[in-house]
Amino acid sequence: MRIVGELINASRKKIRDDIKEKNRDVIAKVAKEQHEHGADFIDVNAGIFVGKETDYMNWLVETVQETLDTPCCIDSPDPKVVEEALKIHKGTPMINSISLESERYNAILPILKGTDAKIIALCMSDEGMPYTKEDRLKIADKLINSLVQNNVKPGNIYVDPLVHPIGSGNHLGNEFLKTIEAITEQYEGVHTICGLSNISYGIPKRQFANQVFMSMAITKGLDSAILNPMDQRMMANIVAAETLIGKDDYCMNYVEAYRNGLFDFNK
Ligand code: THG
Fold first, then answer.
1. Which residues partner with 160 through β-bridges?
2. How high is the pLDDT of residue 198?
3. Fold designation for 92-228
4. pTM (predicted TM-score)
5. Which whole-number Å values give the CA distances from 141 to 56, 173, 222, in the listed order?
6. Which of 190, 193, 242, 247 has a CB 3.0–4.6 Å from the CB of 158, allowing a cystine?
7. pLDDT number for residue 267
8. Whether the CB of 195 sits within 6 Å of ligand 1
């Protein structure tokens, strides 16, 4: 599974002030810890700084890249912010995100020209957020086709169906899982991703619910996720679930994780 570490996000109370005060050491430490715990990309989000998002985003990208070779996942709905961050990012980042909302979509397309960046395609349109598999697939299909027409490789596309809280409707977990399954089956080479912690919004023991939901999503083909890599049980579940569905030849990753102590929960 491709892991995007979610912790450098200004919407988190714990880190908001460190971003605001441009506290380099803290950001570098949080980036490094996530990398050491398995993050392949470091999500950077400065969305709460209205009017100053570009400044903070560029500072975050610079700070992460001073510390690590791990690429960033540039998390902003604003094409302008993404464009500026791409100019300073070294190597190939992940762009989080594009959607079918026409204003946002039309502004971001030219920015993607010629880039080899990985692109998260959110299932969202001018009609709002979809809730059923069918409505999500309609949007995903349009996004995938138009990205491919604009020379984006299918392997650089990461479809995010968007997770809704299970507390808002019994069917919402299943609709999400069915969407992952359909995208995986119907679009060869295209990836699926999500920030799955939304599923547990409003219920107790959120991490536990997230961990269980992760295993379920992996059986449907989910191959990437935006999450907290410091959550050991989550990372352990991912390794085990991928081994058990046959994505781990000779159980090499499982055995390595065991040797590294990933399955020692009570230390
Ligand atoms: N899809 C895509 N991008 C995303 C999301 C998604 N980016 C943002 C988000 N969702 C994923 N990132 C986070 C980062 C932090 C937290 C949750 C998701 C988090 N939340 C705690 C909570 O909700 O209780 C605490 C908040 C706090 O500390 O104040 O930590 O779905 N493409």
1. 122
2. 95
3. TIM Barrel (3.20.20)
4. 0.97
5. 34, 21, 17
6. 193
7. 74
8. yes
